[in-house]
Automatic annotation (TrEMBL):
Signal peptide: none annotated. This is Sensory transduction protein RegX3. It holds the Pfam family Response_reg. It comes from Streptomyces yangpuensis. The modification 4-aspartylphosphate is found at residue 49.
Amino acid sequence: MHALLVEDDDRMAQALGTALAQRGHTVRRVARAQDALRHTREAEFVLLDLGLPDLDGTELLRRLRTVCGVPLIVVTARCEERDIVQGLRAGADDYVVKPFRMAELMARIDTVRRRTDAHADRAAPGPAVVRRGDVEVDPAGRTVTVAGAEVRLTRREFDVLALLATRPDEVHSREEILDRIWGDAFLAASRSLDVHVAGIRAKTGRSGLVRTVRGYGYQLGGER
């Protein structure tokens, strides 16, 4: 697999590049946002530091998500809850705070890639379009429309919504959603799922589209 490593610290870049190469990955390392945008189409997954010299990393993440859908993990020293929430909402598949254990990061990369590959394998044929009022969720086409206008969700936001839509009359536990989408049911104490549900509600403008079942999980709800 070809990794795009966006990291301006030479020592960190060398350590990450060596670890990735030892696992059989080829690596292109860049230190600036403009170079990341130039080379993103050749990447099969991205490791992104947020502290870049020419552009804020969160803004770069948003721009990358407009041109590529490959797995992307933020690897950064920013550890405030606000930064983590912004990174996840902007489209990161995972968020790792420095300092970290290299073995853990490699495991997270493997998990994200397996999940992405599994979604690709299930792409066709897909389930039917699900409608809730003026909201349409098309799992096969990976589109969401509200009152006829397409709404752009991050890949993971869409995955959560599509999972709920596959069995719209059932309540899905947090553990099931985390296991199916994140690949780890033991992340139940994290806020990642809640952040993505909030993103779905905000972007669609339909706060009732995802219904919270307190103490258990989520269900596809009405449109309002």
